[in-house]
Amino acid sequence: MSVANIAARLSRHRSTIYREIRRNRFEDSELPQLSGYYGMLAQKQAAERRHRRRKLIRMTALREAVIDRLKAGWSPEQIAGRLRFEGHRSTICHETIYAFVYSQDGQSQDLARHLPERRRQRKPRYARRPRSLVFPLERAIQNRPDHVNDRSGFGDWEGDLMIFRKELGKANVASLVERKTRYAVLFRNNDRSSKQLMNRLITLLSPLPLFARRSITFDRGFEFNRWRDLRTGMGTEAWFCDPQAPWQKGSVENLNKRARRYLPRDTAIAALSDHAMAEISAQLNATPRRCLGYRTPAEAFAEELRQLDRS
Predict the structure, then answer these.
(1) Over the range 264-281, which residues count as b (16 or more CB within 10 Å of their CB) and which as e?
(2) Which of 24, 210, 276, 304 has the fewest CB atoms within 10 Å distance of its CB?
């Protein structure tokens, strides 16, 4: 049967079949006519790969050495590198340590809490990235109009979330800054729900004229996946930075840095009132900025609104 027919019979993509054949193909240099894919050999090779990945299950001494170092605060990369440096008979890859930590055996011992950066679920290092239409290509920052890029237009914002220590709860602070005037808006969220965040944005920005809220640039965090609500709710467009490129929305990153003077990471955000958040925003907007000719963001923002009224 052809690969396409095999894929159809097994309800798999043909790329999956090609990958299986290539990965488990038997090669015989002396008798090339015997080279090919054999089911029994393929199964044996797959079992051997799984067996190698379970090295920390099979080798008690190695497992105990890894766990001791995890509890001492070492990262998996440091553990793997140190074992090689010390010349241990059995070495290990840091990816194998991560796989063990997030496996059923590792979770039963709650080993993930010892990692410098804990995640709910470990993703393979070379895993395929999920394809999604949540942030379509036409909304990429490269397609943003020139008047947004060069700050010549008014009403284009950048948005982000400021996150605080986990033990203080799920509350966070949303930060907004108008790119031309550097006018800042901070408000509190009780969680990272995208629906709640977008509803708050619409409530806060809707009173402004349309030309004062033309667009907002975000990163690709899941809290912004309901960006279409902005367009339907108040006619505001959304643009998105490239993956792992927060510097592309540098204005709001700079605002977050300034706001951390008033809101360090150990702040109990849930205890702050909306009035307190408004006072922090007012303080930031009353500070002269060199990029504005030492006007304050509040003065520059008010001047732009007056020009809109006159036009």
Answers:
(1) eeebebeebeeeebeebb
(2) 210
pLDDT for 23-78, tens place per residue? Answer: 888 887 788 777 888 888 889 888 777 766 578 888 888 889 899 999 988 999 99
Higher pLDDT residue, 66 or 104? Answer: 66
What whole-number distance in Å separates Cα of residue 130 and Cα of residue 245?
18
The model's pTM is: 0.59
